[in-house]
UniProtKB/TrEMBL annotation:
This is Cytochrome c domain-containing protein. It comes from the Bacteria. Pfam families: Cytochrome_CBB3. Keywords: Electron transport, Heme, Iron, Metal-binding, Signal, Transport. It comes from Thiothrix lacustris. The keyword Transport applies. Residues 27-107, 128-208 form the Cytochrome c domain. One of its GO terms (molecular function) is heme binding. The keyword Ribonucleoprotein does not apply. SUPFAM superfamilies: Cytochrome c. Residues 1-22 form the signal peptide. PANTHER family: CYTOCHROME C5, PTHR40942.
Length: 220
């Protein structure tokens, strides 16, 4: 009986120490990654028996909203085909939680990277469009728009664009196609498409934000 009491007290003390150390020690996803790559990858990398794969958002869509605490308890109990505590009953709470944190982070990190890549691609596309618009502008439009001749809105001048800058791109492009005031239809250049005119207009509107001026005017 005495041995049973001592054994029980020892188990309680160990469990308490396990919980306290996990609460006091910050989780370490890097350590969790090392543990994952030693043990858990065998099932989770391949998604065996529906094991959620790292960085695969579709696998985690229903799991992430459950929260880290619920996922931790599930690992302790062993959900589906997974053994309780994975395959290692000797792992500490801190190790298990760090591993779960690592796997959750792979999903959010991958999603953030995807968004960053999408934004980067969009920025690159816009930059190329503006460069193309500037090239076309300097070939055709600068003669009037650099100096605001005959009422043409001047490049980089907010005051000059006050009546036009808030119009839609389609409306501005239509003005160029039809001709407005002293401007010829198609801006005097029938060879350009409506998309090319839009690129030029986009460049001219961007000059209002960035204070750009044409090289021709810089040389005056």
């Amino acid at each position: 009986m005495k041995k049973l009491i001592i054994s029980t007290l020892f188990s309680v003390l160990c469990l308490s120490a396990w919980n306290v150390s996990a609460e006091d020690k910050p989780l370490d996803p890097a350590a969790g990654k090392r543990l994952y790559e030693t043990y858990c990858f065998m099932c989770h990398d391949r998604g065996l028996s529906n094991a959620p794969r790292p960085a695969e958002k579709a696998d985690w869509d229903k799991l992430l909203p459950l929260g880290e605490e619920t996922l931790f308890k599930a690992v302790i109990d062993g959900p589906g085909h997974m053994y309780p505590k994975g395959i290692s009953p000797v792992w500490s709470e801190w190790e298990l939680r760090s591993m779960i944190r690592y796997m959750m982070d792979t999903v959010t990190d991958a999603d953030s990277q995807k968004q960053a890549n999408t934004a980067s691609a969009a920025d690159k596309e816009r930059h190329l469009q503006l460069l193309h618009g500037r090239k076309l502008y300097e070939q055709t439009c600068f003669k009037c728009h650099d100096y605001g001749d005959l009422g043409a809105p001047k490049l980089g001048s907010l005051e000059s664009w006050a009546g036009s800058k808030d119009k839609s791109m389609d409306a501005l492009a239509r003005s160029v196609i039809d001709g407005k005031n002293h401007m010829y239809a198609h801006g005097g250049s029938n060879s350009l498409s409506i998309n090319e005119f839009k690129s030029m207009i986009e460049y001219m509107l961007s000059s209002l934000e960035k204070g750009w001026v044409s090289p021709q005017r810089e040389c005056q």
